[in-house]
Amino acid sequence: MNSLKGHIKEVQVNGSLSLVTVALSDEILFKAVIIETPETASYLSEGHLVKVLFKETEVVIGKDIKHLISLQNQIRGEIKRVERGQLLSNIIINTPAGDISSIITTNAVDQLSLKEELTVCAMVKTNEIMLSE
Amino acid sequence: MIKIDVHKKLRAFDSEMNFHIQCQIKKGELVTLYGESGAGKTSTLRILAGLLKPDKGEITINEVSWIDTKNKIFLAPQKRNIGYVFQDYALFPNMSVLQNLEFASGKGQNKKVITELIEMMELGDLQNRKPQTLSGGQQQRVALSRALVRKPDVLLLDEPLAALDYKIRLKLQDYITRIHKEYNLTTILVSHDIGEIMKLSDRVFVLEQGKIVRQGIPSEIFSNQKISGKFKFTGEILKIEPQDVVLIVSVLIQNNVVKVIANKSEMQTLKVGDKVMVASKAFNPILYKIQE
Fold first, then answer.
1. I need a surface site. Which of A27, B191, B242, B288 has the fewest CB within 10 A?
2. What spatial distance separates the first Cα and last Cα of chain B, rounded to whole Å?
3. What is d(CA B43, CA B46) in angstroms, rounded to the nearest whole number?
4. CA of B266 vs chain A CAs: smallest distance (Å)
5. How does pLDDT run across A32-52, given as a tens digit for each residue?
6. Is the interface score ipTM higher than 0.90?
7. What is this structure's pTM?
């Protein structure tokens, strides 16, 4: 599981859903849509320190992307290590917010020619992100 | 609404314990007392039932005073409308199931409740049998029904399912949920089974040394961190299989085994037998209707 720390910047509420913006650094903002509101989860307040959790298998890797993409959470970093398996591989990316692991198919690693020191963009859908105190 | 604020010096093994329980339980709530042996869980139930006298304090149930040591009020146990179910079924062996229920309802009571309970607890085919011819799970169903015939103000359940095997326990948990809702009962459960507590209770009181040290909703009490994932279960790791760059972790959740993919770097922190929380976003699971 990937776990990054950040401070809550904004909470937009609609009914029982909230769209939470977390600042992992000054420039990197991550968004999470969760079934909680400030009434049901005490940590949903501006400035609160939270952990941003997401699974390695939900991290999409992009390289030289030119088209627009709907994924809201994008973070650039340098590949630190590639652990190759037969079907699946683990890519560890060094980003300003900390290391992120992405588990993708080994086929995809080959297609994108992913290797150490290459700069890539790690992307996660807002509905894949969990928040924790 | 139940208001409890009682003190008592209790002898636990060779030491003395200052028992002081203070809490409020809303009508219709099911709360669990959780804690180690000797923490004061059963003593709390016994004080409520009137089987144990507190040194000082008050208990009021729906604005009626059951205990008020200041004003020398102590309502006799037989005058308290409670249902009490233990691990031991304690049914009358010489009476049939139906007779056990009728005896508990007392003279002149409305028999409609008994008919209703027999139906709800599925005792129809068993009603003319003697307790010793029934299985443990069936006897406990009778004991539960018997505790309910007077529509108690409070239902006290002291580890009622601890002696039963897993499958029967799950089934009886469903019966408890059903009757609790149907009769809008106020129930106090003592249990050590975290799965059971998560499934049944609205709130948990954690007892230590005769005092409530923590309280909250079960998922908060039994997980170390507040996590926003809505698809949450607790389970036990049965098997960890490394595969490629991932681990396939088999987790027993109630009586189902689920498999979860974990990162190999998590290997150090996970081992077989560990209790874990399996969490996912509510956005991921799909619902697939089962044709009956």
1. B288
2. 41
3. 5
4. 8
5. 999 888 888 888 999 999 999
6. no
7. 0.60
